[in-house]
Amino acid sequence: EKIETAVGTGNGVFVGQVQLTTNQNGSQYELKDASRGGQSTSDMSNGTSGSGSLFANPNNSFGDGTAANRESAAVDAQFGAATTWDFYKNTFGRNGIRNDGVGALSRVHYGSNYVNAFWSDDCFCMSYGDGANNSAPLTEIDVAGHEMSHGVTAATAALNYSGESGGLNEATSDIMGTMVEWYANLPANPPNYQIGELINLRGDGSPLRYMDQPSKDGSSADYWDPNVGNLDVHFSSGVANHFFYLLSEGSGAKTINGFSYNSPTYDGSTLAGIGRDKAAQIWYKALTAYFTSTTDYAGARAATLSAASDLYGANSDEYNAVAAAWTAVNVN
Ligand code: ASN
Ligand code: ZN
Question: Which residues surround ligand 2, an ion (CB under 5 A)?
């Protein structure tokens, strides 16, 4: 096949207007990015099997910003994958999900009225449903970062997707998905510590999850307790999401980009944050150097302390902040 990169324009449902690296193939421009491991986006046409058909057109302009245009969700997905690629490369020096330079496929318009998105190692691809009435695609950028990060976790710590390790697996995706949203810093999607705040999955405008106080979703755990591993992994993740928020921003009330947070602590302690960039370095180092498939919350405390010691020094402010943030979510 012919590889001739071009710069295209996209108008996504959630990303607004963005540039995309496309591939010129004869008279067609394809949503395929040779500068990022050949990552591409295909149309599943509401089916659930196979690779779908690669998005391509003669204009090198994709989508119109509405979900009714089939290309708009594809723009979100292709831009989300590109941003996630760049985030891992420029933040951690990671060359793709498996660190082997190979890009993943994004499949949009997966299934009918399918209200979910997911990563699969089998196809090395992520898939996005079109949501309720096939009119609410789940292609927000923090979801893209979340799903691709499941691929990173599978290629590194391989955290088992059940019990406390499953909560850590889910939290890793929420943490990195959130970091991708901050990295993108889109005017159409001001970055925040909420997950899925634009896709309106609940139908009432509320986000899917909250990192500052996970229990605001009605189900997630703010703090560790002996039963937390019995919760669904999307709820036991709350403990680590809360840890990451506290480590980044500290406790109490705060407003950033118009989003208000009020993060409590188990022990009533007042914490100062070290910033999300350092917190992300610590989490990534723990994920890739210390977590194993069976790491639990106590193990995650030890692993992130080792990572903080490696990166910033034993008894550094950062090391002490990690210890205090875990204590603040009752992981001792
Ligand atoms: N969207 C969900 C997730 O990535 C799919 C699942 O339940 N695994 O966590
Ligand atoms: Zn997930």
Answer: 173
- Which CATH number characterizes residue 33's domain? 3.10.170.10
Task: For residue 209, report the distance from its CA to the centre of ligand 2, in Å.
Answer: 12
CA of 27 to the centre of ligand 2 (A): 38
Does residue 127 sit in the same domain as residue 175? Answer: no
d(CA 39, CA 35): 9
The residue annotated as part of the active site, out of 109, 146, 150, 234, is: 234
Within this chain, do residues 124 and 220 fall inside the same structural domain, yes or no? no
Structure tokens at 309: 């010691």
Beta strands in the chain (DSSP E): 5-11, 17-25, 28-30, 32-33, 39-43, 53-54, 56-57, 61-62, 105-110, 117-120, 125-129, 194-195, 209-210, 252-256, 259-263
Ligand 1 lined by 287 (C-beta under 6 Å)? no
Please identify which of the residues 140, 147, 170, 318 carries the catalytic annotation.
147
- Integer Cα distance of 243 and 223 in angstroms: 9
How many angstroms separate the CA atoms of 81 and 144, rounded? 7
Nearest CA to ligand 1 atom 8: 118
Q: Model confidence over 152-207: pLDDT tens digits? A: 999 999 999 999 999 999 999 999 999 999 999 999 999 999 999 999 999 999 99
Ligand 2 center–CA 124 separation, angstroms: 15
Here the ipTM equals 0.96
164 is catalytic: no
pLDDT digits (tens, 9 = 90+) for 244-253: 999 999 999 9
Predicted TM-score (pTM) of the model is 0.98
Instruction: Give CA–CA dist 69/49, Å, rounded.
Output: 22
Strand partners, 62: 10
Tokens standing for residue 231: 């919760």
Q: Which domain holds residue 186?
A: 163-328
Q: Which ligand is nearest to the CA of 172?
A: 2
